């Protein structure tokens, strides 16, 4: 009979230990994993990306349910362990389930520390530690305006940036003089604060929170100096505390964490601990690299492999906070016997500081340029003497820096600090297993599988191993593939792939059905490449596009009838009023694009509302050409020089419902006063005495990009033609979900300008656009109103 191994905790440290055990002896144990959360194992490091909507929850799942099944692991999820009997060797879960064990690993992790102050239990006070925390914050961001984050550490700043990206006004409250004081010195911390303030974050430094204000829900904070601040949500991010509740019900020794020896053993027979809940030599670690090091030692112990004792870890932090690169490792405070070498470049706004004791690096702080972080860290870990290094060198010739060529790096150079994977390990895996992609290397070695910041270096090692030539890491469009957008589109044309299924199969996607990130992208690329041959795959589109309505935060939808150019009439207004009253629509609002929106519509009411409105839908729900915003123009405004409303209506008639890589917004102003903000539109027009100025590549949102003047033309038809050519060029070369501002920067403004202003190229693009959109329906709601089967499939409650 196999021994029963029970893991308490389904987080990164515990599951990594199980992976290491399976690598060493897959048939050794009958394994059960008990988890508190409802999700399978996921990468907690990526929660900030979910909050910033750069990734979805499904994309951060590290080990899906299939992994547990394939490895014959029993997963008891959403049912935490609440009692542990070390004498009889059994665990009891919250639901009453009893689980016997021969060996038990405690990997219960940690919890966000909530200040024990008045008001801490009010609604609206949250931590930032789990998927549920993240989703609660996203939900709050849709309803409220102001947020306060208590804590200026890494997680606090990531939470603040995420909420800022969701449109909230965010203030960070921090007790210390500078941000991230445990990872950065004062200089770097102040540089980080200055950069984040430029992005819109506000800071209250050296502030002690005394109590949280509010009756049932938070309304503000009161500080010890007598000042207050209003807020709708409070995110507590002042650190973590080891989760030791279960261990404290037993005779297991617990201090700050569960006390373990050099082999991760507790004082209770056959009970071990790893991760943020474990205390080794008085230290509790909160970064993944030490936790994974502990897991390797414990895996050796539990599979009877000879192993070196765990001696503690030298921690490092390499991250990008809201676009600001920083790196920290080791001891970063000057003290007796520890001196420093620092260099500040005010031109490029970079800062480097090395802490030295007895001619050896003991600490590193980098800000702005972190390219040498890995090199310094390797020197630190090896206790290498720096006697032969030049401490500071100004204005040396380009190319005289330390070599970035991986072919010259020693075999024991650590490539992936999170997982402790060196160059030799990666090289061996590439050669023995015939690996050809960064994804393959990650799968077989785990290098790059945690924070992912080393993937470019892995790509360099891969290129060196495969041919001696250093290459960059492939930047795949999603986790299913290492292929870039350009590589995929090239193969779609070359192999004449006309369906998503063919793309996934022929291009060897890891997931044969794609994922939520790549499915809509592949569908779009196929629509552009084969407008006649490819049948649009509606199931690959986002819910707004499938239902022709925008989903709201409470699960209801918004209806936006079409009013070209923002122009309406009494009959339309009466129809909207009657429908809103009949279907008890909770809010009717004039939108930012000068349309009237009905908000809070139930899904099952959508077809009936559209039928009774008898109006066309506005292009407000898809990655497509949106409604064109206009001012009243020369016909009414005393400053107007052109008929802006008339031109806006023509543009909308000509190009509405055309799919684009991202939403495509237009604005037509009749004079340079630009009442419709033409200067921040994807395609903006400003009327002047001699014609129309055309601006391109402007984007609003959290990162406002000003449009660039493309040209001035004399006639409306020239405006319409240039707009069509830009649309098709953007469709053909854009990366799915890429706005025109980054597209213009990537392509180069001069290149785009040359294409759009070349009469022959412009005509070719217009012909291609005409072919692509030939036969498109003028109103997608016609199909829904006429087709009862579609209504039944898409608009019945509980179905999407």
In short:
It comes from Enterococcus plantarum. With 800 residues, the protein is α/β, with parallel strands linked by helices.
List keywords for this structure.
single chain; 800 residues; alpha/beta; FAD/NAD(P)-binding domain; Enolase-like, domain 1; 6 domains; five-stranded parallel sheet; 31% helix; globular; heme
How many strands, what sense, and barrel or not for the largest sheet?
Answer: 5 strands, parallel
* Radius of gyration (Å): 29 Å
3D shape:
globular
Number of domains: 6
Average pLDDT level = 86
What's the CATH topology name of the largest domain?
FAD/NAD(P)-binding domain
Describe the structure.
The chain is 31% helix and 21% strand. With 800 residues, the protein is of the alpha/beta class. A hairpin with a 5-residue loop joins strand 30 and strand 31. The two termini are 47 Å apart.
């Amino acid at each position: 009979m196999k021994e029963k191994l029970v893991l308490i905790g389904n987080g990164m440290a515990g599951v990594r230990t199980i992976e290491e055990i399976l690598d060493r002896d897959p048939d050794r144990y009958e394994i059960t994993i008990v988890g508190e959360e409802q999700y399978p194992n996921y990468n907690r490091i990526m929660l900030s990306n979910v909050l910033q909507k750069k990734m979805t929850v499904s994309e951060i799942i590290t080990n899906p349910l299939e992994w547990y099944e394939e490895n014959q692991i029993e997963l008891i999820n959403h049912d935490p362990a609440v009692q542990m009997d070390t004498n009889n060797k059994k665990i009891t879960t919250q639901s009453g389930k009893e689980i016997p064990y021969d060996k038990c690993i405690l990997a219960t992790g940690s919890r966000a520390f909530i200040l024990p102050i008045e008001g801490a239990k009010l609604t609206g006070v949250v931590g930032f530690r789990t998927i549920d925390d993240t989703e609660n914050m996203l939900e709050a961001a849709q309803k409220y305006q102001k947020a306060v984050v208590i804590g200026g550490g890494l997680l606090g700043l990531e939470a603040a940036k995420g909420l800022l990206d969701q449109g909230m006004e965010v203030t960070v409250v921090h007790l210390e003089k500078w941000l991230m004081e445990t990872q950065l010195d004062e200089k770097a911390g102040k540089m980080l604060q200055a950069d984040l303030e430029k992005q819109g974050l506000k800071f209250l430094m050296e502030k002690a929170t005394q109590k949280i204000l509010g009756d049932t829900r938070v309304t503000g904070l009161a500080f010890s100096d007598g000042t207050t601040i209003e807020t709708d949500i409070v995110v507590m991010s002042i650190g973590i505390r080891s989760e030791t509740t279960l261990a404290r019900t037993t005779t297991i020794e617990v201090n700050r964490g569960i006390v373990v020896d050099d082999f991760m053993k507790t004082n209770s027979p056959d009970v071990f601990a790893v991760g943020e809940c474990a205390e080794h030599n008085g230290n509790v670690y909160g970064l993944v690299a030490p936790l994974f090091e502990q897991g390797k030692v414990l895996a050796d112990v539990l599979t009877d492999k000879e192993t070196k004792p765990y001696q503690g870890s030298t921690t490092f932090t390499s991250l990008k906070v809201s676009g600001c690169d920083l790196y920290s490792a080791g001891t970063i405070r000057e003290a007796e016997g520890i001196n420093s070498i620092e260099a500040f470049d005010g031109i490029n706004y970079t800062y480097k500081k090395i802490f030295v004791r007895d001619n050896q690096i003991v600490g590193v702080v980098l800000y702005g340029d972190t390219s040498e972080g890995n090199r310094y860290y390797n020197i630190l870990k090896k206790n290498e003497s720096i006697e032969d290094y030049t401490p500071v060198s100004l204005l040396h010739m380009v190319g005289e820096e330390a070599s970035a060529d991986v072919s010259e790096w020693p075999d024991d150079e650590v490539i992936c600090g999170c997982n402790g994977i060196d160059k030799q390990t990666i090289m061996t895996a590439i050669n023995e297993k015939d690996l050809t992609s960064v994804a393959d290397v990650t799968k077989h070695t785990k290098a790059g599988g945690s924070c992912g910041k080393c993937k470019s270096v892995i790509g360099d090692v891969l290129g060196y191993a495969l041919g001696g030539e250093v290459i960059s890491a492939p930047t795949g469009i999603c986790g299913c593939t290492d292929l870039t957008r350009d590589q995929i589109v090239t193969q779609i044309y070359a192999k004449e792939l006309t369906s998503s299924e063919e793309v996934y199969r022929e291009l060897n996607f890891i997931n044969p059905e794609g994922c939520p990130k790549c499915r809509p992208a592949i569908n779009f690329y196929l629509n552009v490449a084969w407008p006649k041959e490819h049948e649009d795959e509606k199931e690959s589109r986002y819910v707004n596009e499938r239902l022709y309505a925008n989903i709201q935060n409470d699960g209801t939808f918004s209806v936006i009838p079409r009013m070209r150019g923002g122009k309406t009439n009494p009959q339309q207004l009466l129809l909207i009023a009657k429908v809103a009253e009949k279907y008890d629509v909770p809010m009717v609002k004039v939108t930012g694009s000068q349309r009237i929106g009905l908000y809070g519509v139930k899904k099952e009411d959508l077809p009936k509302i559209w039928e009774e409105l008898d109006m066309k839908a506005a292009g407000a729900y898809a990655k497509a050409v949106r409604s064109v915003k206009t001012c009243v123009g020369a016909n009414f405004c005393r400053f107007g020089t052109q008929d802006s409303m008339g031109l806006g209506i023509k543009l909308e008639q000509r190009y509405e419902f055309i799919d684009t890589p991202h939403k495509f917004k237009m604005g037509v102003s009749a004079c340079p006063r630009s009442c419709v903000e033409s200067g921040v539109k994807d395609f903006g027009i400003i009327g002047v005495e001699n014609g129309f100025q055309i601006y391109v590549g402007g984007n609003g949102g959290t990162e406002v990009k000003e449009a660039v003047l493309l040209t001035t033309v004399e006639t409306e038809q020239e405006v319409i033609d240039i707009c069509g050519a830009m649309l098709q060029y953007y469709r053909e070369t854009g990366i799915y979900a890429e706005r025109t501002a980054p597209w213009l920067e990537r392509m180069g403004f001069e290149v785009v300008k040359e294409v759009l202003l070349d009469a022959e190229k412009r005509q070719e693009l217009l012909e291609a656009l005409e072919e692509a959109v030939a036969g498109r329906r003028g109103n997608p709601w016609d199909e829904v109103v006429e087709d009862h089967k579609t209504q039944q499939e898409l608009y019945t409650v509980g179905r999407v």
